[in-house]
Structure formats: C-alpha cells, structure tokens
Design brief:
The complex is a heterodimer of chains A (620) and B (299).
Chain A lengths: L1 E9 L5 H11 L5 H14 L9 H4 L3 H6 L6 E6 L3 E7 L7 H9 L3 E7 L6 H12 L4 E7 L8 H15 L6 E6 L24 H7 L12 E3 L2 E3 L7 E5 L4 E2 L4 E5 L4 E8 L8 E2 L3 E6 L10 E4 L6 E11 L11 E5 L2 E14 L6 E2 L9 E13 L7 H4 E5 L6 E12 L13 H7 L5 E6 L6 H14 L4 E5 H4 L11 H20 L3 E5 L5 H9 L6 E7 L2 H7 L4 H6 L21 E4 L5 H18 L8
Parallel strand pairs in A: 1-3, 1-4, 4-5, 5-6, 23-25, 23-26, 24-25, 26-27
Antiparallel strand pairs in A: 2-3, 7-15, 8-9, 9-14, 10-13, 11-12, 11-15, 12-14, 16-20, 16-22, 17-18, 17-21, 18-19, 18-20, 21-22
Helix pairs in contact in A: 11-17, 13-14
Chain B lengths: L6 H17 L3 E4 L4 H14 L8 E4 L6 H14 L3 E4 L2 H6 L3 H4 L1 H20 L3 E3 L16 E4 L27 E4 L7 H11 L10 E8 L2 E4 L14 E6 L10 E4 L5 H9 L18 H7 L4
Parallel strand pairs in B: 1-2, 1-4, 2-3, 4-6
Antiparallel strand pairs in B: 5-6, 7-8, 7-9, 8-10, 9-10
Classes of the chains: A alpha/beta (620), B alpha/beta (299).
Chain lengths: 620, 299
C-alpha cells in the first residue's frame, strides 16, 4: 500500500478545513470522543449553526479557533483500503504563505479549493504558482460550495475554463475539476446522485486514490548524499544517508562528488541484516571497497553518472522572512546535507504572482518569488530541482537570527566550478609584502558616526607611515564619491557598499598593503563577510566605541541634527540599527581613551595576532 | 524482511535522527517507556547500527509511573546498553507533589513540564527527541518536526520556522533549543503494526490481564500501589483490562479488553472507535490545554 502526501490550498474561507474534516469523518477516522468534543466546540466556536463545524477538527491552535482562520499547516492522516494519505491543510491568508509552502514542499498532489461564488481569486493564483514551482504535477480543482449556487453546471464550467486558461503555463500534467459541497458531502466520497447528476467524473476520494504517486527517482541513476559518517571503530567507516535517486547493490562502481574519487560498494548495512539492494527514499549505510575520504555533504553516485558540482547557479527563490532579501549579504545555506554560505549576486526578476510577468527589482520581500543568481562559497554537488528535489532544493538561513528566510530551487549551474582555477601567481602575497618589509593586514574600524574612526585612522596611518610601512585608508570620503557613488543609504545599498569596500581591501592586502578601513559598517553579517575574505590573522576588527549620546553631542558634521529633523533617513543610531561587534580584536572606548592610547592598543594587538596566528595559509 | 510497508516512515525517521546526530552539540532522547518510545528507540538503533546510539536517553520520572514501567525501563537499558539518565524534580519530590493530592494539572506542571526544563538546563541539552505524533492531538498536528524553542523553552505556535522538504534548519543561538519529533508522521496504527513487524518489546501493561481497578468518572483506574486512596465503599475489583497509552498511573485509564497477544492488540486498535488519548486525563483539563502546556515547555 503506498502513501500519498497531498495538500489542500486555496483562498481564505474556501472551506479547506471543512473538506478535510469531511474526508476524515466519511473515512471513519474520527473517534467517538473526538466527535463529542467536536459537538461541544461546534456550539462554542462553530460557524455552521446547529450543524457540526468540521473545520474545528483541523484548526488546532487556540488563536485559529478564536479567529476562525488557519494560521499554520496541519497534518492529518487517513487511509482507505487502497492507500494511506497524509494531508497537509495549508493556510489561505497571504501572510502565512510560508506555512503553505512548508506543506507543499513534501506533497505529491494538490487539491486547490475554489469558492464557486467567487471563482479564481488572487490567492488561487498565488498558490497555483507555488504549487507549480515546488514541482507538484497533479492538481484537483475542487470547486466548492456548489450548494450555495443551486448546483449550477454553467458556473462550474466557467470556473474550470478560466482556471485552465490561467494554468496553461504552469506545467501541470493533469488538472481534474470536481464540483462539490464539502458541507453537504456531495462528490467528496459519494457521487452526487440528484443535485449534480450532470457531473460524470470522479469523486474527490476517487481522485485521491488514483492520482499517480511519483516514483520517478527510482528509475534514475543512483545518487546518495552523505548525511553522517559512521565510525564505529578503526575498521568500520560507513556512509549513512538517504538515497536521493536510483538503486544500489553491492559491487556497484561509484564516484564521489566533489572529490571525483572512485570506488565500489562493498556492503549495504541496515540494522542486523545487510541488504542486497537499496532504493530511492531509503535511509541506509554504505561501506565502500576503498579507504576513501568522504564527508557529510558529499554525494556518492553511480560511477557512470557522477554528480556534477558547481558554485554558481540560477535559482528560483521564495522569500519567507520579514527582513527583505539583500543581494550580496552572506546567508547560511543547507543543500541536501551540505552546509555552505550563499549570497544572491543578482536578482534577474521578480515574478508577478497574478500575471506571471517578470518585474525588475533589487530585493525580494516576504512572500515574494524571484529568479536569481546565487553564489556558494564552495563547490556543491547538485542536480536541477526539476530532475531531483533532494539534490536541487536548498534553504537560506539568516546568519544572525538563524531563522529560515528563503527556499531555493536550482535551475542550472552558471559555470562549472571544476573548470575554475585560481590563476597560479608566481609573485605571491607574501612576496609582495616582504619586499615592503611588512605583513599585509586589513585593520577594520567600525563604529557610529562621530565615534572617532577617522581621527584614529588618520593618526594610525601617520604612525605606520613614519615606521616605513606601506598603507592606505579606505573611508567614506574616498569611496562614496567614486567607486560607490551609485549607492544610496537603503539597507540594500549599505550592504553592497560594504561588500565593495571589503573586496577592494582584499585586493590591497593581496598587493601587500596594510589597509585601514574606516566605515560605520553597522551590520554584523557584512563585517563577518569581510572577515571571511581574508586569511586567518589578516583581518583585525576594531570597535571604535562611543555612546550614541556622546556621538550626537560631538556631531562634527551636523548629521545627527539633520537626522533628528527627519532630513536624513536610515541614519545609523537614529532610525537604523548598529550591531556592535561581539568579539572584536580591539575594543576602543574613545570617551575614556586618548587617541594616542587607542593607537597603542591597536599596534599591540596587531603584533599579538601576528604572533599567534598561522600566517598565510593559501586559500583554495 | 519486508521493505515496503513501513520503509518510507522508517527511512524518514532515521533521516531525522541522523540529522540531529550530525549537527547537534548535545542531543538527548526522551524515553517515556511507552510504545512510541519503544519504536523511537528501535529507530535510533537502526539509524546508527552497528555503532551504539551516540546520545543518552532520559526518563523524566514523576514518581507515579506504573511499577511495571520502571521495571521494563531498567530491563531494557540493561539489555540494550544505552546510557540512561533519570530525573525527578527535587522540589516536587520534597514537597510530596502527586496527582492525587495536588490534582492532575499541578502534578503534570511540576513533575513533567518543570522537571523536563530543569533536566534540560542541568545537562545543557540542545536537541531533544520526543515521541509525539501528529495524529495524537490537534496542536501536535500543527507542530514542525524540528520545533524551535526560544530561551526558556517557550514554543510560539504562531511563528514557527518554515520547514521545507527534508531540509531541517538546525542552527540555533546560545540558550535556544529544539524539540525533534521523528515519529511526527506515524499514526497509532502504524506504531502497532511496526511493533508487530519488528517484534519490538513493550511494557506488559499494553496486553490484557486481570488487574485490580476501581471505576472513576466512567473509567477504569488501576490500583497499582497503596498511594491511590480509596473512596468510602470503593472496593478494587479484578478485571481484564489493558492500556492503550501509558502515563502516570492515576492519570491513565485502562480499557476493557481480552487482547493478550500482539495480533489481538493490533486488531483491536485498528477497529477502535475512540481515540487513544481518551484514556489521558491530562487532555480533559479544557480546550486547548495541550497547546498551553506545550507553550510552557511540555512535550
């Protein structure tokens, strides 16, 4: 007996929860004590007068029952003699779209509800596009509340036609339209004998029992991401994972990505008896014939069909965070079992959810969908999402809050990382630094406007110059007016501003210079991104710390006064946050310390860091 | 062996358990001794075979578990050789808090919810497996497989992390924790059939036997020891009963049954007309009571 995972979706008040309650009731999945509770609840919260309000069976959160809406996806279980079903009842409200996507991501089929009185609504279209994007290929169009329209055939036909016209580009293999009344139980389990005798198709339950359950993965070549390495002892090294596609037998030759190393399967371990074959979807442990280096996030695949690696992709993204997607901000990512850092390098376009049109944009806000280019910080074994969900889906995580902020689907690789080699430079960074009798460094000063960054930077450069060091200062004055003059002060622009500065600083360090960067750089994640560009010990974060009141009192450039008057927006400290460093290498409290003692503290730390770190490990 | 019927559920659960082992700093598996815990334990054995389970199991002992449960727990730990931690709220034990003297709600709050939070804080566990299933109760049907808890163990049902595909976000900040439910997509019927298929040992209380009981509020309450005060005129009688679900003994009612074998239990369960939680008095404390308990840190 197989299992069908499906979702119900549609607009608010289309009757999704009522429909599921009806399905559970008619397949006898509601127990007596639950029915008693339902009767009580129907009296208390119900919206159906004297009748049972089936929606209350499914809306499980107190807030949902009180407000009469669905906030989060609920999972329900039922079975008929032919199939087991896991149904995800997903919310209709636009603000809860991410919960709807949560339900849809693991579903094989979708029931899209439409209120016959209202027809195809914006939310119907939004959900259809998400369902399509997530790769669901079979849709039942459940045109509900037919009882309120005297079971009118022409209404049903008009809605079906309108929907088919809308959905023709969405790539659904089948669309099955069914007129029904969840409240009255017509065409749900039993065919309507009287009221809708004109309908000759399947009931909804018939459709659920017969819609194809995708097993496409099994016929494809073998691939399994490594989830966990089982090192029971020195002799035993097993690679545990869940098979993403195909099947595997002992003796099969395999190729590991990204290393490209080849070996063969020695044994399939599964509890007390080894298996002769492992199939897509199964969690197993593989032993290989050779002692090869394999880690979590690597992919073991059929040697005839190795899994490609790349680090730049075109991808679709559904944004699920209240904080808009910022291009060039580094996010954490998880793709199959591989963790990486990902940045969106470019937003090609945003999808207009209603028309399907492509809109130009610089960011993606909550619930928006876009096609983007992404760059991972390391090569990632992958398959396009349409070929394999397990190897082509990734999630985007905010590094500061750790919230899941986006869902990504790989379309294709933009270049093969395997072909990219850093140009072998004979004149190396140490060589360039050595000729200057110094070690290249990036001294990064961060702090509020007016905290003393420029004063310290200038004094520091004078001191270093006097000692014969080769230096350069990057600050707002020489960068904002040239390289970054196209950037404003929105959050997105400030992120890009810092990215460019960091990249320039990196080039200068590569050239052997000691670079002093003096930027407010208010966000931790950008400073983190900058730090990651450098080798260990090269990047020194210096927190120039003065209380806001003090900076505002100094107000050398009169900016705080302007910001307070509302003439400057997004001004750090006033209407934009400053995230102080958690563990800076140097912490300068400029109210208590003189500029001279600040300089001494910096130079002392630089010497210590040099002493304690491994210098110049080559980046890959 | 049959790879088909429960392979998908089994593989999903194993994937979840392994993901925690691969990413958590200090995981622990809650072990409640019941049938779901027994299945979860077997799945953990399978996930890491032939290596031992790489994290401890923990039992929050309210002091009111059936004696047969404690005996079964210690026997199982001895046979399988996993590391077992038991914890009882010292304040509750000192004050003699129990379901009979203090009522089920207060007992559960102090001896389960508070005790669990104390134990997690004491050991600094960051990922905590529980055997809850989505088909048990309405607020559980809404919960993620990886269920994030803010500092102080609070669950915010209105802003759960999205959880797409089988990609579980295991990143947390200091002080935050995650409850992980590998059995989320199993039903009561699945649990029983898997126990039968795999021959998993379970507490004998699940099988019908003659046991001393009294009738309270229309339910059979077993007289497991002298701590259950009898009301005037109340006389324990021996009846063939068994338990569909096991909790603290005066809070869990037995059902009339003649099912003495696993096959009979499975047949009876699949044909049941009431839900298993009917025997759980904790759920009857008012609508939304489970959700409230969960927000406060209950499993």
């Amino acid at each position: 007996m197989d299992t069908l995972r499906f979702i119900t979706c549609g607009s608010v008040d289309d009757g999704k929860s009522t429909l599921i309650g009806r399905l559970l009731y008619e397949t006898k999945l509601i127990f007596q004590d639950q029915l008693e509770a339902l009767k009580q609840d129907s009296q208390k919260f119900g919206t159906q007068g004297e009748r049972l309000d089936f929606a209350l069976l499914v809306d499980g959160l107190q807030a949902e029952r009180e407000q009469g809406i669905t906030i989060d996806v609920a999972y329900r279980f039922f079975a008929t003699p032919t199939r087991r079903f896991i149904v995800a009842d997903t919310p209709g409200h636009e603000q809860y779209t991410r919960n709807m996507a949560t339900g849809a991501s693991t579903a094989q089929a979708a029931i899209l509800l439409i209120d016959a009185r209202k027809g195809v609504l914006p939310q119907t279209k939004r959900h259809s596009r998400i369902v399509s994007m997530l790769g669901i290929r079979h849709v039942a169009l459940a045109i509900n509340k037919m009882d309120l329209l005297d079971w009118a055939k022409n209404v049903f036909e008009e809605i079906e036609l309108a929907y088919r016209r809308f959905a023709q580009d969405l790539g659904f293999e089948t669309i099955t339209a069914i007129p029904l009344s969840a409240l009255e139980g017509q065409n749900v389990v039993e065919l309507s004998q009287v009221e809708m005798r004109w309908y000759e198709g399947k009931t909804l339950l018939d459709w659920l029992e017969t819609v194809p359950v995708e097993h496409g993965e099994i016929s494809r070549p073998f691939a399994m991401p490594v989830q966990w390495v089982n090192r029971r002892n020195h002799e035993f090294r097993g690679f545990a994972g869940r098979i993403a596609s195909g099947s595997v037998k002992p003796g099969d030759p395999v190729c590991i990505s990204p290393s490209g190393v080849r070996s063969a399967v020695k044994k399939i371990v599964f509890y007390e008896e080894p298996w002769e074959v492992g199939n897509a979807g199964q969690s197993i442990t593989l032993l290989l014939a050779d002692d090869v280096d394999v880690g979590r996030g690597d992919v073991i695949a059929s040697a005839a069909h190795p899994i490609e690696c790349a680090d730049q992709f075109e991808a679709d993204i559904l944004w699920m965070s209240e904080h808009a997607l910022l291009p060039s901000r580094p996010y954490a990512a998880l793709i199959h079992n591989k963790s990486a850092t990902v940045t969106v390098t470019h937003i090609k376009h945003q999808l207009d959810i209603h028309t399907g049109a492509h809109l130009a944009t610089r960011t993606l806000a909550l619930n928006e969908i876009g096609t983007v280019t992404v760059s991972f910080d390391r090569p990632v074994p992958f398959r396009p999402y349409v070929d394999n969900k397990r190897l082509g889906a990734f999630i985007v995580i905010d590094k500061l809050t750790n919230d899941t902020a986006g869902a990504g689907l790989i379309r294709f690789a933009l270049r093969r990382a395997i072909n990219v080699h850093w140009q072998a430079l004979e004149v190396t960074k140490p060589a360039r630094a050595m000729i200057k009798h110094q070690e290249a460094r990036c001294l990064w000063l961060t702090g509020l406007s007016g905290s003393g960054k420029s004063t310290i930077a200038n004094l520091l450069e004078k001191r270093l110059h006097a000692e014969g060091k080769h230096t350069y200062i990057l600050d707002g004055d020489n960068v904002r007016h040239g390289l970054n003059r196209d950037l404003g002060f929105t959050e997105a622009d400030r992120v890009e501003n810092i990215r460019r500065v960091a990249e320039v600083a990196k080039l200068m360090v590569d050239a052997g210079l000691i670079v002093i960067v003096a930027f407010i750089s208010p966000f931790r994640s950008e400073r983190e991104m900058a730090r990651n560009l450098f080798d260990a010990g090269e990047f020194i974060e210096i927190f120039v710390d003065a209380p806001l009141e003090e900076c505002e009192r100094r107000d050398v450039k009169g900016l705080y006064a302007k910001a307070r008057r509302g003439e400057l927006i997004n001004f750090t400290g006033i209407d934009s946050a400053y995230e102080p460093p958690l563990a800076p290498e140097v912490h300068l409290r400029t109210v208590e310390m003189s500029p001279e003692s600040c300089i001494r503290a910096i130079i002392r730390t630089v010497q210590e860091v040099v002493h304690n770190s491994v210098l110049y490990p080559r980046r890959q | 062996m049959n790879h088909d019927v429960y392979s998908e559920l089994e593989s999903e659960s194993i994937e979840i358990i392994r993901e925690v082992a691969a990413t958590a700093r200090k995981p622990v598996m809650l072990y409640s001794i019941g049938k779901d815990s027994s299945v979860m334990l077997r799945l953990a054995q399978k996930a890491f075979y032939p290596a031992p389970i790489p994290f401890p199991l923990m039992h929050i002992d309210t002091g009111w578990k059936f004696r047969e449960m404690i005996a079964f727990r210690d026997r199982t730990a001895g046979q399988l050789g996993f590391q077992l931690i038991t914890y009882t709220n010292p304040r509750g034990a000192a004050e003699g808090i129990g379901p009979v003297s203090h009522g089920s709600a207060y007992h559960t709050d102090v001896m389960k919810t508070e005790a669990l939070k104390q134990a997690l804080d004491l050991h600094g566990f960051d990922f905590v497996f529980g055997g809850a299933r989505r088909d048990e109760e309405k607020s559980r049907a809404k919960e993620r497989i990886f269920s994030f808890r803010a500092v102080g163990h609070r669950w915010d049902p209105k802003s759960q992390r999205p959880e797409l595909w089988n990609l579980y976000n295991t990143r947390i900040n200091a002080g935050e924790t995650v409850r992980v439910f590998p059995l989320s997509n199993w039903t009561e019927g699945d649990i029983w059939q898997y126990i039968r298929q795999e021959n998993i040992p379970i507490v004998p209380l699940y099988f019908a036997a003659k046991r001393p009981v009294v009738k309270r509020n229309g339910q059979w309450i077993m007289v497991d020891d002298h701590r259950l005060p009898l009301e005037p005129g109340e006389q324990p009688e021996l009846r063939m009963i068994r338990f569909r679900t096991l909790g603290c003994y005066p809070l869990t009612a037995g059902i009339d049954s003649n099912a003495t074998t696993l096959d009979q239990v499975v047949t009876e369960t699949l044909g049941a007309s009431t839900s298993e939680r009917q025997g759980r008095i904790i759920d009857h404390d008012g609508a939304g009571s489970m959700e409230r308990k969960k927000q406060e840190g209950y499993f």
